[in-house]
Each structure stands twice: as C-alpha cells, then as structure tokens.
Amino acid sequence: MTQFARHAxxxxxxxxxxxxxxxxxxxxxxLAIVDVQRLVNxxxxxxxxxxxxxxxxxxxxxxxAGLKNEFEKQKSDLEKQSAILSGAxxxxxxxxxxxxxxxxQRAYQDMQQDLAKANDKEIGKVIKQVNEVVKxxxxxxxxxxxxxxxxxxxLFASGRIDITEEVISALDxxxxxx
Length: 178
Prior knowledge:
Blueprint: H1 3-27, E1 31-34, H2 36-42, H3 44-81, H4 87-141, E2 145-148, H5 164-173
Parallel strand pairs: 1-2
Helix pairs in contact: 2-3, 2-5, 3-4, 4-5
C-alpha cells in the first residue's frame, strides 16, 4: 500500500469515526414537549390568573353596561322630546348624544386595551414561572431541547416525551405571586 493510500485510508477512517461520534451524540439528545395552553388551563397558577382576569372582565362589563344604559336612556328621552323641542335645542341634544356615543366607544376601546394588557401581565407571570420550572426539570433530567406543543409547529410528538403533567405538578408546588 502506498503512502498516499494509507493517508487516504486514515483520512476516511477519521471522517467516518467523526460521523459516528456525531451520530452517537445526536442519538443521545433528549427531547421533551410541553403543552403550555394546558399548563395555563390546568395548573393552580394558570387558574388563578384566569380567575383574576375574569374578575377584571366582569368589572369592565358592568362599567360598560352602565355607560350603555345611560346612553340608551338619553337617546330614548331625546326621541320622546324631539317633537316638543325647538330646532336649536334638538340640535344641541343630538350633539350631546353624539358626544356621549363617542365617549362610550372610546371607553370600550380603552377597556379592551386595558384587558389585553392585564391578560399579558397575568399570563406572563405564569409563563415566566413555567419557564423556570421547565428549565429546572430539563437540567435535572438532562433534556437537550424542550419544545412547546402547538399544532402550528409540532405536527406529531410521542406521548413518551410529553412532560406537561410533570410540569403542572412541579408548578403547583411552587408559589406564584399573582
């Protein structure tokens, strides 16, 4: 065997052994998947956050209902009195009613924005805690990757790698400031 052939054989051996070592390393990668939506729905912290949000939503609905009732009453009064009011007085009341409608719409939009911010804040606290629990569990169990289970990015995942129940259990044992 020529020296060139020996070097070529050595090079091929190194390349193959390097590929095998890389394949072996890849086969030892540990993967897990977590259903974050289920964590929010089923964990104590998630339920508490949702309960807080529902309370805020109910308060907002009551406030909007009051504003709507006030607007509807003024509208009804204007319709009843339109025949006896002078032209100038009628226009003035219509203008006031239009402003009231704009105020109602603005209040509705403001409440939607406030509720969206509150949702982000409440769920954000839970997600932060979930991330901490998942990281601890991943470090403890040696997971290389933990993926979020959702239909858009994960088409299939074996139930063997789903650690959602473990995360819910660990999350329920921790204190979350809500």
